[in-house]
Amino acid sequence: MQTNPSESILLRTLKGEPTERPPVWFMRQAGRVLPSYLEIKKQYTFWQMMQNPEVAAQVTLLPIDDLGVDAAILFSDILVVPYAMGMGLDFTDDGPVFEEPLAFRENPVTGLFPDPAKLDYIYAVIDEINRTKPANIPLIGFCGAPLTVLLFMLQGLGRKGDFPDAIRFIYENKETTKQLIDALTEMSIEYIKGQIAHGIDVFQLFDTHAGLLPFDVYEELFLPPVRKIAQVVREAGLPFIFFPKGIGTGLAGISPEEADFLSIDWQTPLTTARKLVHSDIGLQGNVDPRLLFAPQEEIEKELKKYLRFGAENQNWIFNLGHGFMPGIPFENARFLADWAKNADWKRS
User: Fold this and answer.
1) What is the pLDDT of residues 152-176, one digit of tens each?
2) Contact predicate 165/204, CB 8 Å
3) In the prediction, which pLDDT does 81 show?
4) Which whole number is the average pLDDT over 81-104?
5) Rounded to the nearest 5°, which phi and psi values hold at 192?
6) Rounded CA gap, 156 and 38, in Å?
7) Residue 56 burial (C-beta neighbours within 10 Å; 0-12, 13-18, 19+)
8) Average pLDDT of the segment spanning 244-255
9) Where are the beta strands (DSSP E) in 43-88?
10) Sorting pLDDT into bands at 50, 70 and 90, what band is 73?
11) Cα atoms in the 13 Å half-sphere on the side-chain side of 210
């Protein structure tokens, strides 16, 4: 079903139109915070859920009813791209695991065998979502940004979360790193074009580990492919949201060429981000997901701090500073969505 832009508060906000309140959706909203998802998960592995169009579409749309959010985001994973590039991948109970991470191979570039057809099942999922979703609910497509995906490809998941082996590889093997970035960007663009062709409405690029490198290194190696990806999305007429988590004052180095909206993590206050980020770029975020472990009266006390920002900034999407975390009470996630939709944002 084609999304009706005039009925979608998210699409209106992304277009720069005034709205009565900020739109609200959450990263990792279609997952373990939902009791309905946990019931489905008892019957399937993560891979099986992703590869079954009916199940993946159902999971994608669960938050619409369960949380009352204004958008759906494709139920998938950022590591489907390296899988399509020929890396052996399995999703275990402890997370995704690569057979042989690239940093430990003698020839990391020549060992990749890209096969775009390995992504076809995701397009079938998008078709099913569009067949079954409400007309006022846009579908957000996504993939991982080259830095974050490359860190996983280089190191895998078996060691520290700050990716010491991958970072060392990048510094020791700059030319090989550039080759890998080019290959990864090419496959990502192929994947994005496929998502667009099958009817996503918005695209978000996730760079969860953007803050692991100094900004000048990030700017040299990883911002050019972001720019290239942004161009592909915008040339198709879709809004482009970029999430460079942990980038700090590097926000000031992101131009309108790289993003329509920037998603802000919880480490950077929204008011600070607004001063750093180019005025033509909208903002998204940045509620600390850990706040949702607190009692609801404490949650509401913190949320009220957003009212002034929301009143003064129409180009803002209410969201988290990262995704929902394991163990967050469903009631608090629902409370967050309800509060955002029912608060008096003093927009008139």
Assistant:
1) 999 987 556 789 999 999 999 999 9
2) no
3) 97
4) 87
5) -65, -45
6) 26
7) buried
8) 97
9) 72-73
10) very high
11) 30
Q: Are 17 and 316 in contact (CB under 8 A)?
A: no
Q: Which structure tokens are listed for 334?
A: 């629902």
| Cα–Cα distance for residue pair 154/252, rounded to 1 Å | 29
Amino acid at 144: G
Distance CA(107)–CA(79), nearest Å, equals: 20
Which pLDDT belongs to residue 1?
A: 61
Note whether 285 and 320 are within 8 A (CB).
yes
Residue with tokens 């590097």: 250
Extended beta strands in 102-229, E state: 139-144, 202-207
Q: What is the pTM of this model?
A: 0.97
Looking at the predicted structure, is the pLDDT value of residue 337 above 70?
A: yes
**22 burial via Cβ count (<10 Å: 0-12, 13-18, 19+):** buried
Taken as a whole, the chain contains a residue count of: 348
CA 221 to CA 217: how far, in whole Å?
6
Q: Nearest-5° angle of CA 322, CA 34, CA 148?
A: 30
